[in-house]
Specification:
The chain is of the alpha/beta class. About 45% of the residues lie in helices and about 10% in strands. It is built from 17 helices and 10 strands. The strands form 2 sheets. Strands 1-2-3-4-5-6-7-8 form an 8-stranded parallel barrel, surrounded by 8 helices. A two-stranded parallel ribbon has the order 9-10.
Length: about 425
């Protein structure tokens, strides 16, 4: 009869083989895997706190949209995070559920308890540790060797409890390149299955971001054993552009938040990255499993539950995306929707085109709205209605009721 030690060795060997096969499959497929961190990094935005039931509702919508993994929370930070993760067990089945941890054994233990009961191939930890000179000196008060030992010890500890382990060097974009790559090599050798490249304070440009990814691919000799993830903050308004630049260079995983919410200026916006990839497949030659028709409702849901409203001009989810008041644009849209749209509303699950009536509107849009409320006017009468609309005070909303009143006023006896 085989000894317990031998059985453990066989189990470990099989686990390693399966894990390597999965990673190899993902890399060869060319698929971009979306890892959503709305429930953790997004919630860190001041005023965006979510209750456990809110997180479940968003998690279900993210699952339906097709995300690969969910950063479900930071168990060591609060009991509410633990409760939210526990509620997801057995409910959220398709995405991998991960929990954030510092490189501290007690954090890993907290994640292990929170994720208890989820299948091994659907539970993981995301470990982070500051690696930049600033973090080493002022936050950790450790030298390079000491930080590296913290990283490897923590990953080794996590590897006894989890098959899926992501490691991200906090402030990677301001870490010395050779040391950064050494951290990655040691992390993979210790058991990390994903290595993350976070631009923690959002300082990079697309060109610099791409250069980092290329350097990591060149210098991390064991990268064939791990996926490469990227995580960008939006302090310069470049998080989406940086993410796409790294996808172009071969990044496997993109970490985003719905509506781009997050600390300071927020994170890379999931819906913007998704649509940019979908509309430019010839450039990126990559695919994803995201269902774009779920994006607009997802944006709306997150806005409602976080009370962080979507800016009107926000791509994909903003209220102005499919709305126009300009007469020339309204005329074009009535003739063919694609004249002034990059994609139609139904592509992202939005309500539809809105022809807003105001000072800039033209004859065709007004005639169209009059017909839609059952009022038939000849061209001269329509032009009179147009002139009445142009005379309204600034900011007046011309809804169907007001439009009807304006039109009827023309036919009342003098």
């Amino acid at each position: 009869m085989a000894s317990k030690g031998l059985l453990q060795q066989i189990h470990d060997r099989v686990t390693h083989t399966v894990r390597h096969a999965v990673i190899t499959h993902h890399k060869r497929s060319g698929m971009v895997l979306f890892s959503d961190t709305t429930l953790r990094d997004g919630e860190q935005m001041p005023g965006a706190t979510l209750e456990p039931d809110d997180k479940i509702e968003i998690a279900k919508a993210l699952e339906a949209a097709g995300v690969h993994s969910l950063d479900a929370g930071f168990p060591a930070s609060s009991e509410q995070d633990v409760e939210a993760i526990r509620k997801m067990i057995g409910v959220i089945r398709k995405p991998v559920l991960t929990a954030l941890c510092r490189t501290v054994n007690s954090d890993v233990d907290a994640a292990d308890r929170a994720l208890d009961g989820n299948p091994d191939h659907k539970r993981g930890v995301s470990l982070f540790c500051g690696t930049s000179p600033l973090h080493r000196k002022h936050k950790l008060e450790k030298d390079q060797a000491q930080v590296l030992k913290i990283i490897t010890d923590s990953i080794s500890y996590a590897a006894d409890r989890f098959r899926i382990i992501a490691f991200s060097p906090e402030d990677a974009s301001r870490t010395e390149l050779d040391y950064l790559c050494k951290c990655y090599v040691e992390a993979i050798d210790s058991g990390a299955t994903t290595i993350g490249f976070p631009d923690t304070v959002g300082v990079l440009t697309p060109e610099k971001a791409a250069d980092f990814v290329k350097a990591i691919q060149d210098k991390v000799h064991n990268l064939d054993r791990a996926l490469l993830a990227v995580h960008f903050h939006n302090d310069l308004g470049l998080a989406v552009a940086n993410t796409l630049a790294c996808v172009k260079e071969g990044a496997n995983v993109v970490q985003c938040t719905v509506n781009g919410i997050g600390e300071r200026a927020g994170n890379a916006s999931l819906e913007e990255v998704a649509m940019a990839l979908a509309m430019n497949s010839d450039q990126y030659n990559r695919t994803s499993r995201l269902d774009t028709t779920r994006l607009a409702p997802l944006c709306k849901l997150v806005a409602e539950l976080t009370s962080v409203m979507i800016p009107r001009m926000k791509p994909v989810g903003g209220s102005n995306v499919f709305a126009t008041e300009a007469g020339i644009h309204q005329d074009g849209l009535l003739k063919h929707p694609d004249t002034y749209l990059p994609f139609r509303p139904e592509v992202v699950g939005a309500d539809g085109i809105q022809l807003v009536l105001g000072r800039h509107s033209g004859r065709r849009a007004v005639a169209h709205r009059l017909e839609s409320i059952g009022m038939s006017f000849d061209e001269s009468e329509v032009m009179e209605v147009v002139e009445l609309i142009k005379q309204l005070p600034k900011g007046t909303v011309v809804d169907d009721t007001l439009l009807q009143e304006l039109a009827q006023s023309l036919r009342e006896p003098a």
